[in-house]
């Protein structure tokens, strides 16, 4: 697919509420997964993580456009991949080159979303198995008026806060603990995060430096800095992020269980 202009097919969207777009940052290298192809292109049951993630989003009736943000040196390869394995109609897909940080990649993806689309989701390519109910819940909350919506789960481990490393501490050596936050007040957040488009655009405009870096690890954090409320909806354990090698083993197991239970 070389044409980057979305052409919305008229009839399949007829009678539906205005469509939402999903930006899929997929330009990371996957250092924590280990050496190899960029993470979004690594196979899960023989299909790249990115293709799983796009299919998962496309299952949501609200999604009309998916903008994939590819590793800059793989943009054409990603276009070819998605042309071979397209999202089912009426979902349109575009591919744009990404940046040096996740937030820069999101900003580049957002620039490609037509102004007419008011609800925008941001979903990691590295979360290939997000269930459609989670995507639907995020869209519904934004449509109901929340400017920023994040799926989240309770934290199940006890979390320690650490202080500055003592002088001479070797990497991997003991770290000083300075506190234990109340776990009942903590949530582990996932994607897709959903936004009113204007809020997301303003958050990225105001909080990125010249290189597009923000120092934030998710988009909702930028909205929080605007002083705009962010709300949580229930996340899902299958929406986990493939970060380390064991996550791929878990993802294969989840897919195998789905094939047994659901036949897909
Ligand atoms: N410059 C970047 C960095 C990350 N991402 C994307 O952001 C998502 C979440 O990031 P993460 O899991 O941290 O991916 P990586 O940055 O690839 O992982 P690592 O930190 O292990 O290298 C991924 O889908 C990743 O492709 C991106 O689009 N552009
Ligand atoms: C956005 C995110 O997926 C929320 O959990 C996460 O912060 C991105 O992961 P990263 O490893 O910090 O890039």
In short:
This protein is of the alpha/beta class and 264 residues long.
What fraction, in percent, of the residue positions are helical? 25-40%
Gyration radius (Cα, Å) is: 19 Å
Question: What fraction of the residues are assigned to beta strands by DSSP?
Answer: 15-25%
Total helices: the number is: 8
Tally of strands: 12
The average pLDDT score comes to 91
Q: What is the CATH topology?
A: Spore Coat Polysaccharide Biosynthesis Protein SpsA, Chain A
Give the domain tally: 1
Let me know the CATH homologous superfamily.
Answer: Spore Coat Polysaccharide Biosynthesis Protein SpsA, Chain A
Global shape: globular
Question: Cα distance, first to last residue?
Answer: 27 Å
The main pleated sheet reads as: 8 strands, mixed
Structural class: alpha/beta
Q: What small-molecule ligands were found?
A: cytidine-5'-triphosphate, the ligand C[C@](O)(CO)[C@H](O)COP(=O)(O)O
Which stretches of 5+ consecutive residues score pLDDT under 50? 1-13
Q: Give me the CATH architecture, please.
A: Alpha-Beta Complex
CATH class reads: Alpha Beta
Order of helices and strands: HEEEHEHEHEHEEEEEHHEH
Family: Belongs to the IspD/TarI cytidylyltransferase family. IspD subfamily.
Catalytic activity: 2-C-methyl-D-erythritol 4-phosphate + CTP + H(+) = 4-CDP-2-C-methyl-D-erythritol + diphosphate
Function: Catalyzes the formation of 4-diphosphocytidyl-2-C-methyl-D-erythritol from CTP and 2-C-methyl-D-erythritol 4-phosphate (MEP).
Organism: Streptomyces boetiae
